[in-house]
Input
Amino acid sequence: MTLPISKLPTLLVSSTLLLGLAAEVAAQTDTPTFYADALPVFEKNCVACHQPEGPDVGGISAPMSLMAFDQAKIWAPLIKNALVTGYMPPWGAHDRHRGEFKGERYIGEQEKELLIAWVDGGALEGNPSDAVQVSNQTQAGGTVLPDSGWWIGDPDLVVQFDRPLYVPDEVEDWQPTIEMPVPEGAHTEPRWVSKAELDPGGPWVHHIVSSHMGVGVPGRGPFTYPAGWGVLMPEDPFITVNMHYHKNPGEGTAVTDMTRAGFVFYEDGDVIDHVVETNLLPHRGWTIPAGDPNFEVNNSYDIDEDIYLLSMGPHMHYRGKAMRYDLEYPDGEIETLLWVPDYDFNWQFLYEYEVPKFVPAGSKMHMSWWFDNSKENRFNPDHTKDVVYGPATTDEMANARIYYAPTKTRGIVVGDPIPADVLSKARLAEDTRRARTELLDLSKDDLTWLTEDSP
Output
């Protein structure tokens, strides 16, 4: 059948409209939605922190929940920006290290592209029923904070300050050493620590150092040692912690802190093969010139016995730019253990190997730090000043903490008598720390010394 010429324009117009409508429907069908597409990616990569009343992670809390569409939609443009720039998910270790460290936070390229497409497509909601299966997977994946409120589960011991610590208006940088009393009868004999978690009172906590709990810095989660690895906590009426507070001074800036710590101990009958040791590996004696955008510092450390390297924790301050650990084996071969090309003071991770790494005696660890003391560094406190190694947050540090243990297994049965060398070493370490510092007496309210000139 042949249509009259007069009918063709109408038919063409109708066909074009139908094709356009079909294309629009197809486009809407293909456009990612929150519940069907974005939420599974969020729950896999983000909601460990971005959840309702999200947990503190080293004093940092996520500003919104990505489990809720209304909040995710509002934040959609910033989500895209964080993905494009690589700011989220925070991790630091170069992509070359995929699969090496526990708790890595790499997001797959396809997942990243899907989230960006969701934002570009208008951040559509979709059907809430699509989220049911996803939520079940999330619960099974362990990305939700346990009911205990601690990532380590139910602690065997919780300690905190005897009373809230007041950090006055005039304080900018303060590093008191404080006792956390152990509840009476809760720790009457040495115990082996399996897990430890620090719960800072807020973002003004620059860091926390304890011989038993490790180090707490912004963004760092709990310590969970591999089975058979542990730290001995001697019996003691209190735990000693060195706190480092940093905030903007001035009227109305005072804060009150109640930092806590939780511990999970090994049970009787468990076997401790490796007693964990740590070394800060600091490097001092350098000066970063004012305005220098790429100042490099290098140091080396000789390894004199066979060890298993458990983890590495780079530490710098606001001018920190990048950091690398290289290992030179006895035969001269060099391996990069950790490369952090874009260091972020707000996310100071501890990079723990999935399997502790064997390092033979005679090896040498080379450490390199890079600093940006220029005005282009938006976190730089003052680009016009030379900077040296120092304790204040506005100073700088070049530290390369490692956790490790000798390869020789100890076979210490928990509940049996503790070897004398292990017990004495643990007690000596704590006694030495306490002898080097003056404990802050929280029973005194007089803090006028904070504003007095040093003698």
In short: The first strand starts at residue 157 and ends at 160. The chain has seven helices and 25 strands. The chain has three domains: 28-141, 157-273+409-443, 279-406.
